[in-house]
């Protein structure tokens, strides 16, 4: 039996039906709260479902929103502004997925629940909500990140009463959510364990799929095999997780699965999105390239009415989440309330361009024609439109030595700069970095970050690219100029001392380099703990560093044309090059 009560949010009264029990088709009951205006008139409902706990989301009524960096920022308060949802005339339903919070059942592995696809549970939640007397039968969904991913899984199941979704900041390709270019990313640990400013999953009954699927003997063999990776063996948290898997079963699953394949593809929302026929609005801010990538990939798959809105840097919204609500309510006013407000007359794609701070629109991504053009790495740390003509005996390689972070706190970088741009130069799209690198170990990370540097030396991140050297294999059929594709289905050790070409994919971005500004390309094999970009992210949002000492030599002579390949728009392609000096 639910508990009905009335709350105050400033001057407003909000009714809440606490601890509703939502029946699933297998007899399990999920827990949810429903917030609405004090009268019982039927209204459209916006459903927010995640593993982060509905009680945490209720703090949106009492905790002022704050952006990173802030000691009070909590990445898991993502279900939206409850008071505003109610004020706009909706029921805000916030629930716990199976095996978490106040819900029954078992959650097995990431985005799987007791062997039940989460989309199936979400179908049942949507249809149950639509049948309640306080709902008018029109249902949408709300929430960012985990909540956004759940919207895609729900829509792929086609519940009849789910009329539209508005997805912001979701994570879609599960492998790319946890391994960028094959390099492990620690943010999922924060989301699951509650480290680095995130409350994490509200665990009640969760189990590892790896433990479920393998005998103890086989699992021990696989664990020892994973511990043979010196990067993993050098990181205390990972050693602990692998030695005591029941301590953090979800994170254990991720650490154990470092290659792409069926384990990740089974519940990949991008694969399921071909089933979606309802209207979908996709919104994402620049600065976290992998999530921008996923939204574009999803947009291209969807067949029904759709929008793609790529917003401005910086990458982290407020917590509790309050941004994008104006656009979201226009979307739902049209699709759930039948108000013709003109939103569907607007272009399908909107992209905020850093630098000019203008918005460009189009029917697809990129919204403008693009010509990929190279900028070559040259001696004296220069980036130039002209390739190097000297051989390696004269154009000696650049390089850096990185000691493991077990023995140093310093992350070494090597960088190359253009001359100042003379005219505004616009870039929109994906890019690539072709780097000819020689290392003295079987593996390393290659992390390239591209910066817009102002005349004063201040800088803002444009985009980034990651590649574990052993994952350098390309899919020739899917790779195009400026848009490489790595399958990540096997790791091939590097021959120490061999010069190899590594092609890093640079995540999608949109920026105009203004007169006097430079592009700076910065290469490392780990990330500085704090800089102009990382200070905007939660403390755990960095990548697993290399666990052995590595010397890197970056060859960029006539025989080894190391270069960036960048997406200049047609208007800027006539003069993509900085001033010649």
Automatic annotation (TrEMBL):
<dbReference type="Pfam" id="PF08530">
    <property type="entry name" value="PepX_C"/>
</dbReference>
<protein>
    <submittedName>
        <fullName>CocE/NonD family hydrolase</fullName>
    </submittedName>
</protein>
<dbReference type="InterPro" id="IPR029058">
    <property type="entry name" value="AB_hydrolase_fold"/>
</dbReference>
<dbReference type="InterPro" id="IPR000383">
    <property type="entry name" value="Xaa-Pro-like_dom"/>
</dbReference>
<dbReference type="GO" id="GO:0016787">
    <property type="term" value="F:hydrolase activity"/>
</dbReference>
<dbReference type="InterPro" id="IPR008979">
    <property type="entry name" value="Galactose-bd-like_sf"/>
</dbReference>
<feature type="domain" description="Xaa-Pro dipeptidyl-peptidase C-terminal">
    <location>
        <begin position="329"/>
        <end position="565"/>
    </location>
</feature>
<dbReference type="InterPro" id="IPR013736">
    <property type="entry name" value="Xaa-Pro_dipept_C"/>
</dbReference>
<keyword id="KW-0378">Hydrolase</keyword>
<dbReference type="InterPro" id="IPR005674">
    <property type="entry name" value="CocE/Ser_esterase"/>
</dbReference>
<dbReference type="Pfam" id="PF02129">
    <property type="entry name" value="Peptidase_S15"/>
</dbReference>
<dbReference type="InterPro" id="IPR050585">
    <property type="entry name" value="Xaa-Pro_dipeptidyl-ppase/CocE"/>
</dbReference>
């Amino acid at each position: 039996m639910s508990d009905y009560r009335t709350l105050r949010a400033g001057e407003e009264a909000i009714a809440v039906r606490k601890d509703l029990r939502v029946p699933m088709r297998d007899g399990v009951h999920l827990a949810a709260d429903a917030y609405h205006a004090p009268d019982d008139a039927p209204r459209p409902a916006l459903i927010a479902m995640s593993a982060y706990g509905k009680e945490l989301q209720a703090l949106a009524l009492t905790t002022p929103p704050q952006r990173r960096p802030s000691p009070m920022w909590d990445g898991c308060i993502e279900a939206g502004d409850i008071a505003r949802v109610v004020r706009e005339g909706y029921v805000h339903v916030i629930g716990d997925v199976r095996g978490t919070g106040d819900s029954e059942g078992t959650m097995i592995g990431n985005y799987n629940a007791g062997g039940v696809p989460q989309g199936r549970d979400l179908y049942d939640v949507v249809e149950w909500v639509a049948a309640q007397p306080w709902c008018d039968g029109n249902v949408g969904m709300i929430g960012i990140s985990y909540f956004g991913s759940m919207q895609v899984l729900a829509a792929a199941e086609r519940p009849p009463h789910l009329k539209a979704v508005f997805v912001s900041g979701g994570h879609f390709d599960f492998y790319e959510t946890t391994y960028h270019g094959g390099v492990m990313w620690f943010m999922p640990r924060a989301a699951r364990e509650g480290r680095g400013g995130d409350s994490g999953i509200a665990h009640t009954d969760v189990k590892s799929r790896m433990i479920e699927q393998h005998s103890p003997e086989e699992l021990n063999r696989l664990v020892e095999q994973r511990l043979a990776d010196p990067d993993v063996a050098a990181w205390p948290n990972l050693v602990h997780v692998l030695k005591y898997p029941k301590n953090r079963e979800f994170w254990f699953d991720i650490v154990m699965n470092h290659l792409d394949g069926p384990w990740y593809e089974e519940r990949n929302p991008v694969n399921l999105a071909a089933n979606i026929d309802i209207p979908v609005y996709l919104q994402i801010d620049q600065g976290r390239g992998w999530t921008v990538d996923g939204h574009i990939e999803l947009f291209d798959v969807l067949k029904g009415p759709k929008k793609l809105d790529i917003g401005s840097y910086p990458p982290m919204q407020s917590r509790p989440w309050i941004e994008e609500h104006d656009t979201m309510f226009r979307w739902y006013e049209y699709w759930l309330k039948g108000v013709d407000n003109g939103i569907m007359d607007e272009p399908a794609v909107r992209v905020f361009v850093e630098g000019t701070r203008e918005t460009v629109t189009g029917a697809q991504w990129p919204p403008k024609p693009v010509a990929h053009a190279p900028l070559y790495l040259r001696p004296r740390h220069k980036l130039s439109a002209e390739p190097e003509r000297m051989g390696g005996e004269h154009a000696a390689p650049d390089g850096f030595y990185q000691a493991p972070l077990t023995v140093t706190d310093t992350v070494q970088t090597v960088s190359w700069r253009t001359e100042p741009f003379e005219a505004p130069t616009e870039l929109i799209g994906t890019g690539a970095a072709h780097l000819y690198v020689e290392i003295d170990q079987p593996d390393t990370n290659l992390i390239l970050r591209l910066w817009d540097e102002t005349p004063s030396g201040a800088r803002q991140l444009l985009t980034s690219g990651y590649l574990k050297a052993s994952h350098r294999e390309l899919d020739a059929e899917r790779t195009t100029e400026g848009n490489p594709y790595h399958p990540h289905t096997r790791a091939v050790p590097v021959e120490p001392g061999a010069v190899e070409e590594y092609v890093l994919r640079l995540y999608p971005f949109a920026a105009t380099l203004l007169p006097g500004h430079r592009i700076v390309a910065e290469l490392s094999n780990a990330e500085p703990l704090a800089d102009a970009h990382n200070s905007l992210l939660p403390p755990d949002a960095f990548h697993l560093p290399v666990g052995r000492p590595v010397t890197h030599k970056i060859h960029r002579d006539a025989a080894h044309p190391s270069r960036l390949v960048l997406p200049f728009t047609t208007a800027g392609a006539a003069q993509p090059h900085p001033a010649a000096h």
